[in-house]
Fold:
Amino acid sequence: MPAPRILILGANGGLGRALHQQFAANFETTAWGRADLDFEQPDTIGAKLVSQQFDVLLNAAGMTSPDVCEVQPERALLANVVAPQILAECCHTRGARMIHFSTDYVFSGEARDLWFEADETAPVNIYGRTKLAGEKAVLKASPGALVARVSWLFGPHKPSHPDNIIQRALQTDDLSAVVDKISVPTSNADIGGWIEQLIVRHPTTCGVLHLCNSGVASWHSWAEAALTIAAGLEMPVKTTTVQPIGLASLTQLKAPRPLMTVMSNAKLQSVLGGEIRNWYDALEEYLVQKYQPQ
Ligand SMILES: NC(=O)c1ccc[n+]([C@@H]2O[C@H](COP(=O)([O-])OP(=O)(O)OC[C@H]3O[C@@H](n4cnc5c(N)ncnc54)[C@H](OP(=O)(O)O)[C@@H]3O)[C@@H](O)[C@H]2O)c1
Structure:
């Protein structure tokens, strides 16, 4: 059977770029950014998709900043709900599979051990509410679609928390990070590998699936892990110690944040049939490749 043709949306984002890197070599891959398909122009989406040959659509586009969503809810609705629903309808009509990325922010963040796929959702901000509505709209329009919830992404294509803290630590030893917000840092590159397996070996897996590395972190422990790895690579960071602060002290945030959104990846492990590595190992590999390339 020929390899499926892949269409990636959100091609200029952190995850979209990682997906493009994953698929470009071995699959017929097309990657579109906002200039190719604007989710805020919903009337254009159907015609644009009809003009493109693809078997699997990976939607990594969306309005991803909780603070921007909070102050621009109409735009968030278009990007995170209306456009994904139209994409799912198009995929369903032509028999293509849609893999749509969502977020751990669909959960309330109340204290508990882990969040599973079937657990009750109760987002606390507009970003989470629109992402949840997008999940539901996609699965209703295309029951064969896969909704992949991810959390705390990092990787080479877009600076995230570990990159930012290392840059700051090269300048100062006065660092702080939130200690009471926890989730699972997850490698964009690992997601690319899991998605390839889900496309090639599990073409009928559908519904909601959590795609995250194993383990748990706070923004604080994630920051100290990044600095410890950087120091081990002999980078001239001024400290590996970060002052713990509470989320409530970040008064500049416009959107409330859920505190505890650690997702279980047991279903992913069961589908793929293997261990999912810990986020620390994935972070170490990423930072070694970034700062000590062979
Ligand atoms: N990053 C995380 O930690 C995280 C955590 C949980 C879930 N997620 C989910 O993972 C997915 C990928 O996230 P990411 O980190 O790769 O996000 P990202 O870097 O912000 O990329 C999102 C992309 O969507 C594009 N986009 C935004 N509005 C658009 C519109 N109206 N029309 C077309 N394209 C539009 C952006 O285009 P421009 O480049 O032109 O702005 C950007 O390239 C999203 O579904 C997000 O909700 C991410």
